[in-house]
Amino acid sequence: xxxxxxxxxxxxxxxxxxxxxxxxxxxxxxxxxxxxxxxxxxxxxxxxxxxxxxxxxxxxxxxxxxxxxxxxxxxxxxxxxxxxxxxxxxxxxxxxxxxxxxxxxxxxxxxxxxxxxxxxxxxxxxxxxxxxxxxxxxxxxxxxxxxxxxxxxxxxxxxxxxxxxxxxxxxxxxxxxxxxxxxxxxxxxxxxxxxxxxxxxxxxxxxxxxxxxxxxxxxxxxxxxxxxxxxxxxxxxxxxxxxxxxxxxxxxxxxxxxxxxxxxxxxxxxxxxxxxxxxxxxxxxxxxxxxxxxxxxxxxxxxxxxxxxxxxxxxxxxxxxxxxxxxxxxxxxxxxxxxxxxxxxxxxxxxxxxxxxxxxxxxxxxxxxxxxxxxxxxxxxxxxxxxxxxxxx
Length: 393
Hints:
By secondary structure, the protein is α/β, with parallel strands linked by helices. It is 31% helix and 27% strand. It has 16 helices and 16 strands.
C-alpha cells in the first residue's frame, strides 16, 4: 500500500479522471513523485468500478483500492447488505476477509468483528478503509484465518468464510472440495469454536451436492441481483438436524423478490397444466436455481405450460417474483407464420426448446431489443410454440 496515493492532489486527480482511458494513463510518464503510473491506474480503475458496485466506498474520501482481481472477487454492496441480516449476536470472525466489504456490513449489526486476510497488503488496505469508513469495531488480522482461529483459542457467535473459487492456474472452480480453504475438512473444528457458520459459495454450486457435503444446514439463501445469480449462502447451525429452508431473493433497486420453500414440499407438490392464457409468468433466476419448479406455481395458483419449460400462465395479472407478460399471440413454431408477424426487432427467450436464441435470430432475421418479447418454448403435449408478449411492469 503506497500511502503517497492518499495525498490530496493525487486523490483530486483520481476523482477527475474516472473516465480517462486507463491505457493512456499507463503510457504516460509518472505524474506524481513516488507513485508509479500502474498504481495510479489501479486507483482510477478501482474507484470507477466501485461507483455502482460499492457506492459507500465510492462516496467516502480517502478510500484505497486493491487490484482489479481483488475487487472483482469481493461482494457487491447489495449482496453484502443482504448477507449482514443473517447473523446476530455480539461477535463474528471473517476468516477470508479480502477487501472487507462483508466485514464492514457485518460490523453495522454485530458489536465485535474480526477480519482475517492472509495477504498482508490487502489486510493493510482493508484496515485503512475501515478507518476512513468509521468502522471502529473491526479488528484486522493479517493472517490465515483458520490458523489464527486455532491459535486464538477464542469462540465466536458466528464464523463467516468465502472460500476462494480459483485453482492454482487461476481457473474458476465450483466444488467445495476444490476451494480454499476446503470447508468440508474443517467443519468439525468450526463447530467447536462457534454455534453458527455462514458460508458463501459460487452460485453454480449444485445445491444437492452441497447438502451432501455439508451437515447441519439450517438455511440456504439463493441470491440474485437484478435477475443475475450472484451467490449461495449456507447457514450451518450446530446440532441442527431438521430439513433446511431454502430462501430465494432477487435484489432490485426498487424492491426485493422473496420466495421460500423446502425440498420435501417441492417433491410432494403437483403442478397443473394449461395452454397459454392471458398472462405469462417467468420466475426469477434465484427461484429457477433453487429448483422450486412446482411450489412456485402451486403457491401463486398458476398453471405450467409444460413440465420442463418452467413458464407459468393465468387469466389474471398477479404480483409475482419474476417477470410478467401479457400474451398477445400464440403460434405454432412455423417459420412462415413467425415471419408474417414482421418482427425486425424483439427480445427472444427460449425455454425447453431445441434451438438456441442465436440460431433463431439468424434464421428469422430478428435483431435484439425493442418492445416485443418472444418466447420459443414447449407447451402441453410436447408442441413447439411461439408466444408473442409485451412486458408488464
